[in-house]
Amino acid sequence: MKRIGFYIALPFIYSISYLPFSILYLISDFLYMIVYYGIGYRKSVVRQNLQRSFPEKSTEELLKIEKDFYRYIVDFFLEMLKCVTISQAELKKRWSIQNDAILDELLAEKRNIIVTAGHFGNHELANLALSFLIKYRVKAVYRPLNNKYFDDFFKNFRERYGSIMISMANASKEIAQPENFNYAFFLVNDQSPPPERSYWTTFLNQETGFFTGIDRFARQYDMPVVYMCIDRYARGKYKVNVELITKTPNALPEGELLEIHARKLERDIKANPSIWFWSHKRWKYTKVNGEIVPVSYKK
């Protein structure tokens, strides 16, 4: 059944992917009405996340963020399908980078680096664009799909401009792999981790756990850590902003890397809240009086 579903979906994927962006966004405007007003995809999750993250905002302000998020998430989905066939020339028209001199300096020192980011902005398009926006070879950690046919398909288009996709299960092995090139090891760190093995901090007004891989890998392999913000400044237009966190991870207290990552991501979300994944059940667990407790997502 998984194979049949894949081959049924394939013509739809390509028919959407070959459309120009102007037509994609017309379709997106129509689909937004269906997704938001008709289906109401995970609307209760989005509302709960927004209310708990921004208790200081009015009902009207939260509703605006909510609607802007749904407009964005439909754009995101169609832009992801566009990734299947998009050319480098088209990507170059839509992407720019700031502060990349930081990366050039680290590359001149022949140092592999860890790049930390969040699900903020279109990371699927970014994966393709970064292949020519930066001089490092991109190694990106991802979560494989359950359907092997879709997983292979998405992995292939993500790698077509030179990025190397690494499953989460192989991250520890791959980061230790010697290469004849310098690489940037990308870890997106804003999903819900196993609570007992998390770094805990206050994030968006809530006690929040973070995966610890950034801190652990940086210390073990003495790798500089860079934060990247993928910001959308217009529809279909993105810019990457680069910030150095540290060149000497072992000089920082344990957990400080994760704290800095959390603060930078929180800053970016507050500045442009509609382009973060509010539909994700990010807070499956929280802490109350130091104890880990499950969070109920109301329907």
Automatic annotation (TrEMBL):
Keywords: Acyltransferase, Cell inner membrane, Cell membrane, Membrane, Transferase, Transmembrane, Transmembrane helix
Transmembrane segments: 12-39
GO biological process: glycolipid biosynthetic process
Main location: membrane
Keyword Cell inner membrane: yes
First and last residue of the signal peptide: none
InterPro entries per UniProt: LipA_acyltrans
Localisation: Cell inner membrane
Keyword Ribosomal protein included in the entry's annotation: no
An example Gene Ontology CC term for this record: plasma membrane
Organism superkingdom: Bacteria
GO molecular function terms noted in the UniProt entry: acyltransferase activity
Name of the molecule in the record: Acetyltransferase
Naturally occurring in which organism (per UniProt): Emticicia aquatilis
Organism lineage: Bacteria, Pseudomonadati, Bacteroidota, Cytophagia, Cytophagales
